[in-house]
């Protein structure tokens, strides 16, 4: 399957991004606008209103990109916007912890609690399971004695 002509032209215009990430999918215009605003406002490597990148001494290719094109942006700036990070990088949505009410990124599809509450709930369930096991052993010992 071949890529549309316009997409291929954009792809070839950005050799740094292509080298870093291989194939990337163009995003919706609203998402691109939000990515560019995030890069202009939060990226420590962009100066002169996002025209120049300190790391490469070239025009910032995140501002000119049609996707997430900069490794620094991906690692350090994008996690500031949790929802966008979840949809673009993790390909999952945020979940809400029923115990504390905080939002978190699940590490698997069965995760219910955030990592902190998950440890507490695991200890509770382990203690309950051990208590039931001890009661079962105690009733068996009484029956045999």
Describe this structure in words.
This protein is mainly alpha-helical. The chain is built from 6 helices and 4 strands. It has helices at residues 5-13, 15-21, 29-42, 71-77, 82-90, 115-144, and strands at 46-47, 52-53, 95-96, 103-104. Strands 1-2 form a two-stranded antiparallel sheet. Strands 3-4 form a two-stranded antiparallel sheet. Strand 3 (95-96) and strand 4 form a beta hairpin. The protein is rod-shaped, with a radius of gyration of 25 Å.
What are its keywords?
two-stranded antiparallel ribbon; about 140 residues; single chain; mainly alpha; about 5% strand
Gross morphology is: rod-shaped
How many H/I helices? 6
Give the integer mean of the pLDDT values. 78
In spatial order, strands of the major sheet run: 1-2
> Main beta sheet: strand number and arrangement?
2 strands, antiparallel
Give the low-confidence spans: 7-23
Please tell me how large the radius of gyration is: 25 Å
Total DSSP E strands? 4
Query: Strand-residue fraction?
Result: 5-15%
Considering DSSP H and I runs of 4 or more, what fraction of the residues is helical? Answer: 40-55%
How would you classify the helix and strand content by structural class? Answer: mainly alpha
Termini Cα gap: 75 Å
SSE topology string: HHHEEHHEEH
């Amino acid at each position: 399957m071949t890529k549309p002509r316009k997409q291929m032209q954009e792809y070839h215009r950005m050799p740094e991004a292509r080298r870093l990430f291989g194939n990337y999918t163009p995003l919706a215009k609203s998402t691109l606008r939000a990515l560019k605003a995030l890069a202009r406002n939060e990226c420590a490597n962009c100066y002169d209103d996002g025209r120049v990148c300190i790391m490469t001494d070239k025009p910032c290719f995140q501002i000119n990109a049609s996707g997430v094109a900069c490794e620094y942006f991906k690692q350090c700036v994008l996690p500031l916007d949790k929802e966008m990070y979840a949809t673009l990088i993790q390909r999952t949505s945020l979940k809400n912890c029923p115990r504390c009410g905080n939002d978190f990124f699940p590490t698997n599809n069965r995760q219910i609690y955030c990592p902190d509450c998950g440890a507490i709930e695991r200890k509770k369930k382990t203690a309950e399971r051990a208590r039931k096991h001890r009661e079962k052993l105690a009733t068996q010992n009484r029956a045999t004695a």
